[in-house]
Design brief:
291 residues, Rossmann fold, seven-stranded mixed sheet, 7 strands, binds S-adenosylmethionine
Length: 291
């Protein structure tokens, strides 16, 4: 069964974050370890050791400079955005390319929300089994197997009852693995099914790292590593053109920021000097009503 390696990497980075003390971590993801294969699981266990445990994240950053601080900063920023929107009355959460995202279990704000997860079937099957094996229920989550490149997302969401409801679509760590056509189609599908007041929080990478027109010191190794595991980055956007890109597709950009900016907000108050990346970015957009 094919399981996303980058989804596992994300879970590993969240497991490392969760191994930190309550005062210094950005969030606690008790399920993250349940999704890991043996080598990652051993390392995540070592990260829990007092004193020496901190070396695991430091060594990981030396070998893979960039991804971990960006991953945890973006996760915290999206957690806060989800919590705020639920507080504002959104009750339908659709997590696209959910991988091993465990928000449906770890965010208290989602306890009374309806959560739908979309990803390829292989990753979903492994995820559901891991959640059950960890002693948690999957009954409150609807799993919809969809490949953004080949499947009809709108029809699948409608068949699951996601239509004309105020929804929050979460698309974290996914657009960079898709073709431009799949990104366009997905944006059109979400606009087609989302009711008034629906919003999309998503991440993207700076297009300059894909076409070589922008330089980020951490980019080269990062790109090489994702390509090596068979999940190369294929799509990016220019931050200064994001508003126009979204407007042309029926979305209004509400805000966007780099994970570096998010990290600067979250790390220093916890006494941390982690440096997240400028190339990895998060945006919130409102779906404008179809004419
Ligand atoms: C880097 S992981 C991010 C997972 C999760 N959103 C997170 O932040 O932890 C990328 C996810 O996108 C999913 N994905 C990539 N291409 C996809 C496609 N064509 N259709 C459906 N899911 C896809 C992968 O299966 C994987 O779960």
């Amino acid at each position: 069964m094919s399981v996303s390696f980058t989804a596992q990497t994300m879970a590993f980075q969240r497991a490392l974050e969760s191994a930190r003390s309550a005062e210094s971590r950005l969030f606690d993801d008790p399920l993250a370890g349940a999704f890991l294969g043996r080598p990652f699981r051993v390392l995540a266990g070592l990260a829990r050791l007092p004193v020496a445990g901190g070396l695991v994240a430091r060594l990981y950053d030396l070998v893979f400079p960039g991804p971990r601080p960006s991953a945890v900063a973006r996760t915290r920023l999206i957690d806060d955005t989800v919590a705020q929107l639920v507080d504002d009355g959104v009750r339908n959460i659709v997590i696209l390319g959910a991988g091993f995202d465990s928000r449906a279990w770890r965010l208290p704000e989602l306890r009374h929300a309806r959560v739908v997860e979309v990803d390829r079937a292989g990753t979903q099957t492994v995820k559901a089994a891991a959640v059950r094996a960890a002693g948690a229920s999957v009954d409150h989550v609807q799993f919809l197997p969809v490949d953004f490149e080949t499947d009809d997302l709108a029809t699948t969401l409608r068949a699951a009852g996601v239509e004309d409801v105020r929804a929050l679509f979460v698309w974290e760590g996914v657009t960079n693995y898709l073709t431009a056509e799949a990104v366009d189609r997905t944006l059109a599908d979400l606009r087609g099914v989302g009711g008034p007041g629906s919003v999309l929080v998503f991440t993207y990478v700076h297009a300059g790292v894909i076409d070589g027109t922008a330089t980020f010191p951490e980019a080269e190794r990062w790109l090489r590593n994702v390509a090596r595991v068979g999940e190369p980055w294929t799509f990016g956007l220019r931050p200064d053109q994001l508003g126009d890109f979204l407007a042309a597709r029926g979305y209004e950009l509400l805000w966007e920021q780099s994970t570096a900016t998010a990290g600067n907000r979250y790390f220093p108050p916890r006494g941390r000097t982690d440096q997240a990346s400028e190339l990895y970015r998060v945006a919130l957009a409102r779906i404008t009503c179809p004419d």
